[in-house]
Design brief:
- It contains 18 helices and four strands.
- By secondary structure, it is mainly α.
- Helix 11 crosses helix 12.
- The longest helix has 26 residues.
- The radius of gyration is 30 Å and the shape is elongated.
């Protein structure tokens, strides 16, 4: 059994898919709260700024494999946000502009330091930004007598840490995301939770950059939670759906990348984007198709109400025989024959009107008369 598990874990296909899935889950867990806070692009700033933390740790320790890389990168990410907020508080620039000013500066400083002091070391912007998930199975670690990809172990630990953080502070995170003022009044320290969340985002970014790269990490942080946001209004479901999109992007992205001979990480991000497009179209509440259906239904409802008001207004007129005839729907209401037929069929089906032979005269039912009176009531009050 152990030998079979060992062989399965060291399979290149399995290692790549599992690492991609864990990156998707870990990123979407923290990304959900960034999306809810309307701070999604902070993930972009953090993913670039971690390079400075990595470089500074290397220059201080002289060790390319220092365990302090995680701490340095996390602090660099948090420092990026803190500097951006400090600049925004000056009221000289807006918050989005502040982010756009700070993180390119820190990233540029990191690139300069690499070229000046770490030219011969395998720390470069290309590796951090793009990564290469196709090689994760080559670097392995032995844990409990079981050999498995190092990237899988690292991102698995980060995923577990992110999950535990959300489980332990679920209520606090929920309250600070939707009503930070109330959270502060109740003593929940929203600022501390916010920076803890950003610290976890930095840890996730530096752990994942060997696999998917910092740029593609941004896609996994933003796209799965955004897709989930379109599908549900429940936070726990949003977390679950986001994780599902992350896993699905890895499962579908890898074979598609092989079939098309393209970047594996890039295809995983593209598949995540396809999930977002599908949700944007078919979401039951926010989807374009659902909105179009509701718009059409509202138009038909308004047309029925217009017909009821027309019939009610002329119910006791001397011209009622002419005004309330089926032909009046086209001549007086200026509807096309198709539109008039559709409205008439809807009204008859809902028992709002009755059609009388042989003169095709329309009369209101008691239900239709009550509805017409309800429609006219606001205008009567206004008059």
């Amino acid at each position: 059994m152990t030998a079979a598990l060992q062989s399965w874990l060291l399979s290149p296909d399995v290692g790549i898919v599992l690492v991609g899935a864990f990156v998707g889950v870990a990123s979407s867990l923290v990304g959900t709260f960034l999306v809810l806070r309307k701070s999604s692009m902070l993930s972009d700033a953090i993913s670039h700024a971690i390079l400075l933390g990595i470089v500074l740790v290397y220059l201080i320790t002289g060790n390319q494999y220092s365990p302090f890389f995680l701490v340095g990168s996390a602090l660099a990410g948090v420092a990026t946000v803190a500097l951006s907020e400090l600049l925004a508080r000056s009221r000289r620039v807006k918050s989005d502009a502040a982010i756009g000013l700070v993180y390119p500066l820190l990233f540029a400083v990191a690139v300069v330091l690499i070229n000046v002091y770490a030219r011969d070391v395998h720390i470069d912007a290309h590796a951090v930004l793009l990564g290469e998930i196709g090689f994760v199975w080559l670097d392995t670690t032995v844990v409990g007598g079981l050999e498995l990809p190092s990237s899988l172990l690292n991102i698995g630990i980060i995923t577990l840490v992110n999950l535990l953080f959300i489980v332990v502070f679920y209520k606090e995170l929920k309250l600070t995301s939707f009503d930070p003022a109330l959270a502060a009044a109740l003593g929940f320290a929203p600022g501390v939770l916010y920076y803890a969340l950003l610290g976890l985002t930095s840890l996730t970014a530096v752990t994942a950059f060997d696999a998917v790269g910092a740029v593609l990490l941004v896609a996994f942080v933003i796209i799965p939670p955004s897709t989930a946001y379109l599908l549900t209004d429940k936070l726990w479901r949003m977390l679950l759906y986001g994780a599902g999109v992350g896993v699905g992007s890895s499962l579908l992205g890898y074979p598609l990348a092989l079939a098309l001979d393209v970047s594996i990480g890039g295809m995983m991000a593209c598949v995540a984007g396809l999930f977002l497009v599908v949700a944007f179209l078919v979401s039951p509440r926010y989807g374009l198709i659902a909105q179009e259906i509701r718009r059409h239904q509202q138009q038909r409802k308004n047309a029925r109400r217009m017909l009821l008001v027309h019939l009610y207004s002329h119910e006791n007129d001397r011209e009622s025989l002419e005004e309330n005839a089926v032909t009046a729907m086209q001549t007086h209401l200026r509807w096309s024959p198709e539109r008039a037929r559709e409205v008439l069929m809807d009204s008859l089906e809902e028992q709002l009107v009755e059609k009388h032979r042989p003169d095709d005269r329309l009369t209101l039912t008691s239900k239709g008369r009550i509805l017409a009176q309800e429609v006219l009531e606001p205008w009567r009050r206004g008059g």
